[in-house]
Amino acid sequence: MIRTTCGPTPSPDTGQHCPIAALSHFPQPHYTIVPQTTIADVFAAVQSGSVSQGVVPFENSSNGSVIFTLDLFADLAGRNPDILVCGEVYLGVHHCLLGRSKDAPEGQDAGTGRTTAEDVSGSPSPAKSRGKPLRDLGHITKLYSHHQAWGQCNDFLTTYFKGVERIDVSSTSKAAEIVQQDDSGCSAAISSRMAGELNGLEFLAENLEDNEGNSTRFLVLRRRRDDGTARPDGSAGAADGEAETDDEHARYKTLVSFTVRHSEPGDLAGCLAVFQKFGLNLTSINSRPSNEATWHYIFFVEIMGRKRHDGSGAVNQALKGLDGVAQSCRWLGSWENALEA
Q1: Does the pLDDT of residue 91 top 50, yes or no?
Q2: What are the residue boundaries of the Prephenate dehydratase domain, all occurrences included (predicted)?
């Protein structure tokens, strides 16, 4: 039995997306899912070796990167020196408005207690929201959700809840739990269908996300072995002498972090040029404060291809080149591209 970890596991008090991603990658009964409260707890469990692997959210197709995860990869306090990425999971994310309904007055549209969506949004074209109310919403004065959900449901919120108080909580499942305990019935949660069912809440609206294909990418973490490798389960390696191919670049991804000398003109450009020199496709770049000095940053780049166990290949050469021009750099793992699987 292999122990893996993720965010809160599905239960009568939860229902968020991280455990669903974990279960899709680590099917029971071969794996035991160990729930954690926060993303930081997942990193700590993997680093300590109390679990073999972990699953954390990394980015959403509508709302971008999960900054908490990036900050943990930055590891400014040195708590997670052995964490590597060894896989990824894509999960479609669909949001619901959960709460308690209030019967609309006779003759009034049950879709909004304010008669029309335009009255709420102040927009002449409020109908662009994909999600439509299934019940009267006029009594809702407070919304709870995880901060990532607001950006994913912006059209719906602008159309039907402009000016209504929004309260950030630790997860969308926690939002549903809070609303379930609110006897006033005047609050609602943006959360998952599972959370609504588990907490006995009504579905006031569904498909709130702006984009029909809204999805979140989760990364699978493991601990670096004592010999510095990530094999198996990360496919960071290849058999000695095995030729590198274009297909291999498409089938794998690699995450790297680095810092630059901010006082040196062109230092960042010089680091990025290393990847071009070795023919590597750079698919994303992010930055977070490095805490070295005010307005100094640590950069994260994701490239196609993998670091090979035998030291050969374009990624290995690029990492050596980056080490020569960056102030500091760190390989954070190589893994199979789930979109090509």
Answers
A1: yes
A2: 7-223
Q: Which residue has the tokens 């999600």?
A: 131
Confidence band of 113 (pLDDT split at 50, 70, 90): very low
Q: Distance of CA 21 to CAs 41, 47, 115, 130, 219, Å? A: 17, 20, 39, 25, 10
Q: What is the pLDDT of residues 52-72, one digit of tens each?
A: 999 999 999 988 999 999 999
Domains of the chain, each with CATH number or no CATH: 1-93+213-227 (3.40.190.10), 96-206 (3.40.190.10), 237-341 (3.30.70.260)
> Integer distance in angstroms from the first to the last C-alpha of the chain?
25
Task: Please give the Cα distance from 130 to 153 (Å, whole number).
Answer: 9
Tokens of residue 195, six digits: 């959370």
Residue 174 CA to residue 183 CA, distance in Å, equals 16
